[in-house]
Amino acid sequence: MAPRKQQEIFDATLRLVAEKGYDGLTVEGVAERAGVNKTTIYRWWPSKAALLGAALVESDVLAFDAPDTGSLRGDLVALVEGVRRLLTEPPGSDIAVAALGAAVRHPELDARRFFADRFARERRIFERAVGRGELKESADPMLIVDLLAGAVWMRAVFRGLRPGDDFATEAVSALLDGI
Amino acid sequence: MAPRKQQEIFDATLRLVAEKGYDGLTVEGVAERAGVNKTTIYRWWPSKAALLGAALVESDVLAFDAPDTGSLRGDLVALVEGVRRLLTEPPGSDIAVAALGAAVRHPELDARRFFADRFARERRIFERAVGRGELKESADPMLIVDLLAGAVWMRAVFRGLRPGDDFATEAVSALLDGI
Fold this sequence. Notes:
The structure is a homodimer. By secondary structure, chain A is mainly α. The first copy, chain A, has two domains: 3-60, Homeodomain-like (Arc Repressor Mutant, subunit A, Orthogonal Bundle), CATH 1.10.10.60; 64-177, Tetracycline Repressor, domain 2 (Orthogonal Bundle), CATH 1.10.357. The first copy, chain A, has nine helices and no strands. In chain A, α1 packs across α4 (48-58) and α1 packs across α6 (92-105). The longest helix of chain A has 22 residues, at 3-24. The radius of gyration of chain A is 18 Å and the shape is elongated.
């Protein structure tokens, strides 16, 4: 499939899940919005779960590059800031929160791929930090990411509070400087 | 309403949301399972969102007492351990994950009350720690809770990985001892 057409299908998928939730997402609805035949979609993705899973990982809308600012602190602040924007700034936040919320109830929608894909890129932040002598080799990168990204989810989604402009700096400082 | 009857209604509500999801939860279904008339439920809670919101905060199943172990480290480890059990040990975890996942898509189901109620109790952990000289007065208790509880959610729910037995100790150590 042409990459542009694929992105249009992912785009339609993510917008539909944001508007109607996972239960309201249908391959027919995606096909109609993207202007393709639904058999075309089924040829590539066997189910709506597979389609949404692929869209989460491969859509340009949720594309993710790990920051590379030159310092561990700078990289982590940029990472948290990116998660904060992802979860609070529409229309991306409607998409991300709806799709990740749906993944909780629908294990067949494999959100683990989304997080595993991001983590594979985030690893480089920690490799560089170890290389620069800013981080012990024994540090646990996944724990650090989970503490920081989880805090944004708790604050913005579960508490329904808007993380302030200094949230990223303060969260990273709690980890790097201690509480 | 008699407290025991109220707990039966909350219990039926939480079990139904775990089994059928929020969309499958109905006041009729709860009434049937709890053996009460649905008008009785509507007299106390005007909607299924209000009923589930009340169940989240008031059910004995999700009852929460902030730990008081005598040290900040001990309290935080116990706190994280409690969240880990809540999110990973059935049947409680089915209930908690389904209800909190539903809250993401249904703001009318006010999960903020659940977190605000818990946080009001968790505050005492930090007040005692400041009193014992273990924590600066300027420390931000909500940030600490969000980092720790969010990490469990990320690991157990989004990544679908089982946090190990030492997860609580390591997460708290990352915050108290630095990374």
